Amino acid sequence: MMGHGTSTRRKRASGTLGATAAITAALLTLASCSASPPHPAKAPSPGSHGHPAGSGAGQLGSTLAVSDSSGTQLKVTLQKVIDPASDASQYSKPASGKHFAGIKLHIQNKASATYQNNANNETTITLSGGKTLHADYNPIANCGNFDNGQIKLKSGAASTGCVTFQVPKGQKVIKVGYGNTVFPGKNAEWQVS
């Protein structure tokens, strides 16, 4: 008899819980359907689909979070895209059929540990033709390349510099990326046109 009473109580309890859950779900669905959105729907910007998992997306001028499994925590701002960029000297010339483009970044360390890396390795651009390029090491006029690409920031410190790329003539920069190339994590990606 005890087993039968326990079974009946369980059935009643689960029936009550099931009914309560169903009513709660129905009320939540009804509330979400009748509530008006706080902001009008915004159409996605061209080219904003398909960014890699684990990346934050923004536009030129926005600050995005970059982090990885090694403990990196950055706030990175794409301040400017200089396309085309001028040579820094007579010894700094792009290859035939190409021009320089400069990506000006402001990087702030938000982690408690010192951040040390090379911005040339961490920054990429995507061209209007769809090709992704890695940095070139030539300097450009009016925007230094951090410390030859090297960044060393204590907790809370920030630095601004340019990363140079050689872009084939007829192409332009449409996207900029920044993220750790060694450890997986959250990368930043900006649409620029």
Q: H/E element string?
A: HEEEEEHEEEEEE
Tally the helices. Answer: 2
Detail the poorly predicted runs.
1-53
Question: Structural class of the helix and strand makeup?
Answer: alpha+beta
What CATH architecture of the largest domain would you give? Answer: Sandwich
Our estimate of the beta-strand percent is 35-45%
CATH class of the largest domain equals Mainly Beta
According to CATH, the fold-level topology of the largest domain is: Immunoglobulin-like
Spatial separation of the terminal alpha carbons: 75 Å
**Number of individual domains:** 2
Number of strands: 11
Write the layout of secondary structure elements.
Elements: H1 2-34, E1 55-59, E2 63-68, E3 73-85, E4 98-109, E5 115-118, H2 119-122, E6 123-127, E7 132-134, E8 150-153, E9 158-168, E10 173-178, E11 185-191
How would you describe what is shown here?
The protein has 193 residues and is α+β, with helices and mostly antiparallel strands. The protein folds into 2 domains: 1-37; 55-191, Sandwich (Immunoglobulin-like). Helix content is 19%, strand content 39%. The protein contains 2 helices and 11 strands. The strands form 2 sheets. Strands 1, 2, 3, 4, 6, 7, 9, 10 and 11 form a 9-stranded mixed beta sheet that branches. A hairpin with a 4-residue loop joins strand 6 and strand 7 (132-134). The longest helix has 33 residues, at 2-34. Residues 1-53 have low confidence and may be disordered.
Task: Provide a short characterization of the protein structure.
The protein has 193 residues and is of the alpha+beta class.
